[in-house]
Amino acid sequence: MSTPIIDELDQEFIDSFRSPASAGNRIRDLNPISFAVIMVACAVAAVTLPGPWGPAAICLIYVAVSIAAGVSKAFLPAYGKLFAVVGLILFVLRAAFLPGEHVLLRLGPIAISAEGIAQGLDFALVVMALCGAMTLFFTVTPMKNLMLALELRGVTPRATYVILASFQAITDLGKNTKVVMDAQKSRGIETEGGMVGRVTAFVPILAPVFLAAMSQTEERALALDARAFNSRSRHSYLVSLQPVGAAEIALVCAVAACAVLSIVGAAFIWN
Amino acid sequence: MRSYGRLTIFMIPIGIATNFIGGQIAILLKLPMYLDSIGTILVGALCGGLPGALVGLISNLINSITSPTLAPFATLSILFGFLAGWLSKHGVFKSLWKTLLSSIPFALIGSILGGLITIWVFGGLSGSGGALIVGALVAAGMDINAAVFASGVPMDFLDKIPTVLVVFLILKRIPTRLFVKLPLGHVYLNKDKTASKNPAVAVVDEEDDELALG
Description:
Order of helices and strands of chain B: HHHHHHHHHH
InterPro entries (chain A): ABC/ECF_trnsptr_transmembrane, ECF_transporter_component
Strand order of the largest sheet of chain A: 1-2
Number of helices of chain B: 10
Strand content of chain A: under 5%
Helix content of chain B: 55-70%
Number of domains of chain B: 1
Protein name (chain A): Energy-coupling factor transporter transmembrane protein EcfT
Largest sheet of chain B: none
Helix content of chain A: over 70%
CATH architecture of chain B: Orthogonal Bundle
Oligomer: heterodimer
Distance between the termini of chain A: 75 Å
Number of domains of chain A: 2
Radius of gyration of chain B: 19 Å
Keywords (chain A): Cell membrane, Membrane, Transmembrane, Transmembrane helix
Transmembrane segments (chain A): 30-47, 53-71, 78-97, 117-140, 195-214, 249-270
CATH topology of chain B: Arp2/3 complex 21 kDa subunit ARPC3
Order of helices and strands of chain A: HHHHEEHHHHHHH
Number of strands of chain A: 2
Shape of chain A: flat
Structural class of chain A: mainly alpha
Largest sheet of chain A: 2 strands, antiparallel
Radius of gyration of chain A: 25 Å
Organism (chain A): Arthrobacter silviterrae
Structural class of chain B: mainly alpha
């Protein structure tokens, strides 16, 4: 029936499930939990190291890791935007409004002091280093892998299902919203113009999307039951994660040790 | 979670998605409010406080992936979920005026606790749009803590009154056959206890939505 080419493709597809899933990159193939520990260690170090150089160095480490992991195209614009919007607001507001003795510049009620700038820089960089840990972690780790790793560690499949289904629901309901919005517009609901008109347009758009999703829950319950989701025996998985090697354990321990050292340093040396 | 029934596990993702699309529709319609806790309150009202709180927590965590400064405000969303469950158990969302009154506790939690988090975690100036108003008030000579609340309270009422109204209108439209299967659905079914002692008859007599047929 099938041509040899299709057979070959099928074989490749089938084989891809026989070996552990790989993204073809050492950092991206780290176990999600190992990478989470590394990122938490970075965040701890950012809080405890003396500012502004400590957190700034951590931010640079994120950039280096993202390039090494081959996700710089996704990570750098997102992180840059975070810096430009949140980091800048945190810094500017602090620099402008925090009182200090060495006033550098006075613009009406705003007095920019050296202390304000130093504190603003410290605070903004620490927050950015914390944000970077989160952003980088989720850029590098696919949610599927994280949930699989958690499930293998004993987290209940119901919890991981809820998380994965939430992401799916956000995309699905988002698509439905566009359809419903167009439909409601075509039957004459005002989505532009006066404030009152726009507020009253809200319910006819959201309600059908929510109610349709709600009435699909029963089908979903049946579909999962048909796949023995509620069975108490061990679940089987289509994909498997890379095995955790000795080098990975050593790396995680080394990074965690650095974080512990930075806590000790913050407690006894530089504070 | 087992005692919450099978459907609750499917309602949580829908609640989370509703939080997100509520916020997106508000942006698309250029409304000056967030409307991003509708799903939390809906699931809290239908399934109970704990599922509602979970919806709030997970929505906030997902939001934190792209804007991590929102993470401390997860406390608010969790409280909204529990409060919605508690209010729903006492039948608050069954009448319009009680629902409108319920916007007061929601808005007070949102503005006061939200303000406290902004002060404790960010020293009064968080990296959001509201921070600009706070900054302007401080520049005009107001105390920073007072400025956080002065800008937060009106903004939160403007957000929570439409939020509870939308929740009320959606709850009105949920078909009976779905209410039956949800943990707190019974609250919304016994609208008139004196009408009939046999709940089955009352359910059949209930005016239903056309969705029940589709």
